[in-house]
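Page 37, top half.
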Amino acid sequence: MTPHSITLYDTTLRDGAQAEGINFSLEDKLRIARRLAEFGIHYIEGGWPGSNEKDIAFFEQSARQSWGTAKITAFGSTCKVGVKASEDPQVQLLLKAETPAVTFFGKSWLLHVEKVLRTTAEENKRMISDTVSVLKRAGREVIYDAEHFFDGYKANPDYALQTLQAAAEAGADYVVLCDTNGGTLPHEISQITQTVLAQVKTKVGIHTHNDCGLGVANALAAVLSGACQVQGTINGYGERTGNCNLTSVMPLLELKLQQPCLPEGKLAQLSELSFYVDELANQNHDNRAPFVGISSFAHKGGMHVNAVNKTEVSYEHIKPELVGNRQRILVGELSGRTNVMMKARELGLELDEKAPATRVILDEIKKLEKDGYEFEAADASFELLVRRHLDHFQASFELGEYHVSMRKNAIHGFTNCEATVKISIDGQILHTVANGDGPVNALDNSLRQALMQRYPQVAGFHLIDYKVRIMDSASGTAAKTRVLITSSDGHREWGTVGVSDNVIEASWLALCDSAQYYLLTQKS
């Protein structure tokens, strides 16, 4: 295939914001737009200036900023039925946004023309053509999104093509084929895109939705057939099941199809961009997302890890660093000694794969996992386990005993939790009592009070996440519980794990591991 220039069109701030559970503030939108511009996205759709005050404010502020090579784009629709585009208030708002490019959508499917717009086929074409003409006379680059194009084409190919020709003949710079319902298959996308390119004399783009899980595949099918613009969102946000995921499309274009679409070196920032947008959107990152998920290059099976240790390409289709990711080795019941050795190496520990200690560590891991432990999100607990089998490990403190009590006053409505902790440091017994919002918080406070007497640096870290999972719910209240704790010192994070048939004990084990690990890092 002969490479052709591909432009990237991001609609995270408009189409992505229509996803359930996503809402961007004005400052969020400006920050994401700036990050997308720095990354090298060509078109950044800021929103619909006719729909809400926040989008109007976005365009007012964006007009006063420099965006480098990126083009901020306003989005809207055709003029209304029976109204000239030059007199349509919504079209005037598109112009008032003062963006270099304007995108608007129109109808390609007669079903929508007749039953939604309730107008004629000719009037619909007039609306498309007239809107393009007004925007072009104002000096804007015009991108026409042909809504429901593939459904419209399959119902009436001649009319669907006529709507594109109306836009192209009026001067549209792009006509974009939209699979708005997300129900078209890749071979259909390919065939129909080729037909469009043979009959419509302007640049063609593609806008796909992911209702069949084919958003990315359909976008690539269109590109392979000659489309030169891909519209989508970061992390695939969008209506229903989402839009075409640009964080998958961009590496596929560059690394698999040899279609450069970003400035040199920017693809290595892809994982960081994905996390950044998730953070501002207040979304949990998808660990299994292709290319950018933390599990994308994670290896757990013993055979896989053994092969990757010899040559990464055996189980990695690209170098993780190309997309800003990294290889991760997991340990568990399916692990072999190579897993333990490579994971230890990842944590900065030298461990011979064939050493007796490695077999002992592996056997203990498998026993613990049988009991309910899980080390994939608990690197700190894993490192402590390994170090305990090495000669040079010395614990910062020894566990003694603890007691937790809770008092509830039903009349006055208050709850009081108190924890007593005894630990030993270099033979000295430290005994502390502390209150907390709950039993785990009280334990954490009491343990810290004891440690502070010898290790004042423990004030430098805190818990940021606490997860509880019931391992065997059929056992009812006697079920085993796994507690995962994430801690941070403001610069890095680490995970620890505890398992018991008592949730307080499981929490205590994870808390102690967290403190042991932090103090260990302070010594090194």
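Page 37, bottom half:
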Amino acid sequence: MKISLNSIKDIIGQSTNFDFKATNFDQAVINKIANQLGAIESLEDIGDKYQGIVIAKIISVKKHPNADRLHVCLIDDGGAIGHVERTSEGLVQVICGANNVREGLVVAWLPPGSIVPESFNKQPFQLTTKDIRGVLSNGMLASPKELALSDDHQGILEITDDDISVGQDFALRFNLKNDQVIDIENKMFTHRPDCFGYIGIARELVAIFGQPFTSPDWYKLEDLPEISAEESLSFKVINQVPGLAKRFLAIAIKDVSVQASPVWLQVELAKVGLKPINNIVDITNYIMILSGQPLHAYDYDKVRNFSDGIDVSLLVRQADLGEKLKLLNGKEINLQKDSLVIASNKQAIGLAGIMGGQDTAIDNNTKNIILECATFDMSLVRRASMTYGIFSDASTRFTKNQSPLQNKPIIYRAVSLITDVAGGQVASQLIDDNHLTSSLLSNQSNAPVISISSDFINLRLGLKLTAQAISQILSNAEFKVELQDDQSLLIKTAFWRTDITIAEDIVEEVGRLYGLDKIPLNLPIRPINPKLLDKDLKVKDIIRTKLAGLGANEILTYSFVSGDLLEKCHQQKDQAFEISNAIRPELQY
């Protein structure tokens, strides 16, 4: 699980009054994560890659006199870089061979002396003022690939973000300055699906620092606006397996403009190892980074083309044996019978919780989309990942038991970002195929209210915390706590937590948030009177000793055996459990 320290700080800054500079916050966060949140596998000073890069504007473009495919560009960097030769107007000359170079374009300029970010962790390539076929070039104008943002090397990066001015430090403008990417071991969050998103990590850190955290306004169940729309793109959701897909939300958006994402969005994805694709797909991935909840977008017209009849339908069903599906990564799989798929009324178009299908993928010709936000059975997703050998960012999160209560605010946020970044209009009602229990929906929590006392917690932690102090510790992490008296507390778990079910879980939360290093290292006081020997154990020991004295051998049998051994023992193999992914053939039954 990779997180950007600058991005986490942005979320924390919106919730608290942290003085990041005064508290040496960066190192403090790293220490807190390692001690109270999860093991850190690696740290990367990603900001170092982007030192010296400047935002510039192309003022003029002329053909290179000695090369058909090259252009001589004059750029305006606002005079930000010294020690370069300039024209009388203060412009800098750069040679560029990109097919999208044109006057008026805002670009990332790598001046002489800077290092190409793509090469930074390999063989660092430092730029110079260079003679290219008889014309001097001061550095280069960079493509997304050269900036280590994506694999796109077809043209230079086009910066279309708002509030851009020439001469700005690229790293500072796009939140890369002094940024560090922290890779936290996934196993540490096996039971914490909320911590697979920035908001969850930020909440934990703020609470560990002893301050109250407030989730962003959009990430709340209260006061959600109703989405009203003209029904111009109608479709149906048919859930044939409600026990395996307890919630499935979908909505259509028309007239979107699919293109490259704004640079801020590309940067946010690239920092954590995700490749930008287009603005629609990138927004679904960005929401996943924020919340830990995967989403998927389908091309509405492609779904319609892969449907029988006039109805556009999304079916949630189990696959038919031998059914084929071509995934977004280009891999074609033969579906197993128990695999959960999303389908039109004609064919499978996605492997639920893992990866969408290529036949309905968003591309530059897409005009209308269906946006999906769902909850799938985590065991079935895990089994499918193992079966097909596909371990996607979505499956990593779905196998951690994501909360179905968060789906509605998340799809609302995705709709808001898509219409803001890619244009378009909501073109259907929000479909909420919901099979959650009424108590779960009314309580807005995945667990019942837990009654607990401060004595219960202190006895297990060796602490002397008051009920008021315990209440504050939990409230900082957005638990809803009600003090009954000076000892008793009623605790309601927030809707994003799926791992809090019993009183001992609360004890664990208090200990971790308060600080495991503050728990006294005293051995518990126990009586030293000898225990009476258990009669059953004594009889077993006598029998074993007698049998050994009579020449008998004691064996410990192994659960996994080979088919050959079963046949030699005249046992029927079909009466044993056959393991599909046995580590060795001789351990198959």
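Margin note: Residues 236-436 form a domain with the Phenylalanyl-tRNA Synthetase; Chain B, domain 3 fold (CATH 3.50.40.10).
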